[in-house]
Write a structure and sequence with these properties.
This protein has 101 residues and is of the alpha+beta class. It has 4 helices and 3 strands; from the N terminus they run αααββαβ. It is 51% helix and 19% strand. The protein has a 3-stranded mixed β-sheet with strand order 1-2-3.
């Protein structure tokens, strides 16, 4: 089989990522987080841990944590629509140290 042209780099990177990513609930959430939450939220908050189906999300500030807590049920529903193994819920906490360069 011959290719008509070079393969897109993004497709190749996604394929490698999907083959090498650990098969954990946290990894699954991290993989779809930016798409589910949106770029603005993903820039301010990121999933960092999971236990018993509860995903802890680290936020740049307490204000973001509070706002996202209100969006938690909606984000959980959108995540579960994309995941094979659903999560029970999301917990948001301020942790600027994880976000500052």
């Amino acid at each position: 089989m011959t290719r008509s042209g070079p393969r897109a780099l993004a497709a190749a990177v996604r394929a490698v990522r999907d083959q090498t990513a650990p098969a954990t609930p946290l990894a699954s959430v991290q993989r779809v987080w930016a798409e589910v939450a949106g770029e603005a939220i993903a820039a301010e908050a990121s999933p960092v841990a999971e236990r018993d189906g509860i995903v802890r999300v680290s936020c740049r500030s307490a204000v973001w944590a509070q706002e996202l807590e209100l969006l938690g049920p909606e984000l959980t529903e959108r995540l579960n629509a994309r995941l094979e193994r659903p999560v029970v819920g999301l917990r948001f906490a301020a942790d600027a140290a994880r976000h500052d360069p």
